[in-house]
UniProtKB/TrEMBL annotation:
Keyword entries, A-Z: Isomerase, Magnesium, Menaquinone biosynthesis, Metal-binding
Recorded GO MF terms: isochorismate synthase activity
Ligand binding (Mg(2+)): 317, 452
Transmembrane helix is among the record's keywords: no
Source organism of the structure: Anoxybacillus andreesenii
Protein name, as recorded: Isochorismate synthase MenF
Active site, UniProt feature: 224 (proton acceptor), 273 (proton donor)
Pfam families referenced in this protein's UniProt entry, alphabetically: Chorismate_bind
High-level lineage: Bacteria, Bacillati, Bacillota, Bacilli, Bacillales
Family that this chain belongs to: Belongs to the isochorismate synthase family.
């Protein structure tokens, strides 16, 4: 258990109440404390009763940053289509400009942060599948556990309005105490029991849409379109989000592991693909496209890797992504660096062509606006960007919602990171939708692309106990 000093928080709240009474706008107080290690998944599980539907989980591939949020002290959302990035950034800036932040040192990922995501395409006709997730949805948590380079920090965020009294301090301290006590009790994480697995679109129909698309790619200006499909699973009981996260953490170590709850649903996954990270004036992006299976032996695995590195179809599929990301990053940066040739990035189930991109950001750069100009890259949408998204909107029998879209976090200093939400699933009580797509180019073969999507379902299928 962790004991905390609480004097500072009281002073901060007193100040915030004063400010809220004069300015008549709610004021955010954020207190950060260094704490003894808390197991992130135990902290997440500790919120199962009180904060279910208001939790998030994030771990980057290097485990430099782990974030677990609990409760929602402020929700930021936008239903305003293409303005959703700008609107979200502006609302965040407004909240932060008034905030009172109590912390001893500057540490990225501690203090006030918001976590959330954007939809893939706000113009796609909506189905009920994603009714819990508007086109932009972000949560500022009440309690945030951050593990930054191995050190644990606990942030407490409180919104003070003109109507609040100083007594809210006692309430918060009591709530926080019981959350931390629960987090110290490690629980076994339940496994899900699968009953039925259903391909939402019949395989032959999906392959036909790939074949038709290939014909169009040969004759038109479109160079690449990413087509996805959905797998719907039914379980005996409600899926245990903790259980799934536990397996993802075990099996998908080199990936971003994320979970984002909203009103009883949970969107989670293990994505190997960074969209963009901002740390001070540095920007990092990733081109990840072009895929092949893992080998059963080391030798076979290396051979497959070599095949991928020399395969024209996959190199072109990858090159389109590099071309677009380089161009977009050059708009945002004073300087951009990237290697000339891709290398391999391997996860448990698949290997990809990989090109990292690094840049020095323009002085006026803000993370969500970079997200806006990158999304969707041709690894998720296609090339040219606008025409490929229109094509997906027209032919894909799927409501992507947050699949293949940016998911991540932003802190008060403007730092943060977004991954693209692939290898992901939407959990709805005892049902789940899994998503997987692949980049279709002129030389695509429908059967091979279908097999590629099957491989891309594996991380989530395995975590859900179905493989
Ligand atoms: C769209 C997905 O993967 C993308 C990322 C890496 C490789 C890809 C590919 O080779 O097609 C895809 O562009 C997905 O996993 O659903
Ligand atoms: Mg591919």
């Amino acid at each position: 258990m962790v004991t905390l000093l609480n004097t500072e928080l009281k002073i901060g709240i007193e100040q915030a109440l004063g400010r809220a009474k004069t300015s008549l706008v709610p004021v955010l107080v954020s207190e950060v404390q260094k704490v003894d290690h808390i197991e992130p998944l135990s902290f997440f599980a500790a919120g199962i009763e009180k904060y279910m539907g208001e939790r998030f989980f994030w771990k980057d591939p290097t485990e430099e940053t782990v974030l677990v949020g609990m409760g929602t002290c402020k929700q930021i959302q936008s239903i305003n289509g293409n303005e959703r990035f700008t609107e979200t950034q502006m609302e965040w800036n407004r909240l932060i400009s008034e905030a009172i932040i109590l912390k001893e040192q500057e540490k990225m990922g501690t203090g006030p942060i918001m976590f959330g995501g954007f939809s893939f395409d706000p113009l796609k006709e909506k189905t009920s599948l994603w009714s819990k997730y508007p086109d932009a949805l972000f949560h500022v948590p009440k309690y945030l556990l951050s593990i930054i380079e191995g050190q644990a920090y606990l942030t407490t965020n409180i919104i003070c309005t003109q109507h609040d009294q100083l007594s809210i301090v006692d309430q918060v301290l009591e709530e926080r105490h019981s959350l931390l006590s629960l987090a110290s009790l490690v629980k076994p994480f339940a496994k899900s029991r699968l009953i039925e697995e259903k391909e939402v679109v019949h395989p032959s129909e999906w392959k036909n849409s790939v074949r038709n698309l290939v014909e169009e790619l040969k004759n038109g200006q479109l160079k690449k379109v990413v087509l996805a499909r959905e797998l719907r699973l039914i379980f005996h009981d409600e899926v245990s989000i903790e259980g799934v996260l536990n397996k993802l953490l075990e099996e998908q170590k080199g990936s971003f592991i994320f979970a984002f709850e909203s009103n009883g649903d949970c969107f989670l996954g293990a994505s190997p693909e960074r969209l963009v990270k901002k740390e001070g004036n540095q920007l990092f992006s990733t081109c990840l496209a072009g895929s092949i299976a893992r080998g059963k032996t080391e030798d076979e695995d290396a051979k497959l890797g070599q095949i991928l590195l020399n395969d024209q179809k996959n190199l072109i599929e990858h090159h389109y992504v590099v071309e677009m990301i380089k161009e977009a990053m050059e708009q945002e940066c004073l300087e951009v660096r990237l290697p000339e040739q891709p290398t391999l990035l391997k996860t448990r189930d698949i290997q990809h062509l990989y090109t990292p991109v690094v840049g020095i950001a323009n002085p006026d750069c803000s993370l969500l606006l970079v997200v806006n100009s990158l999304h969707p890259t041709p690894a998720l949408g296609g090339l040219p960007q606008k025409a490929s998204v229109e094509k997906i909107r027209e032919i894909e029998a799927l409501d992507r919602g947050l699949y293949a879209a940016p998911i991540g976090w932003l802190d008060y200093a403007g730092n943060g990171e977004f991954a693209v939400a692939i290898r992901s699933a939407l959990i709805q009580k005892n049902e789940a939708s899994l998503f997987a797509g692949c980049g279709i180019v002129q030389d695509s073969d429908a059967d091979s692309e279908y097999v590629e999507t099957k491989i891309k379902f594996r991380p989530m299928l395995s975590a859900l106990g179905g493989f």
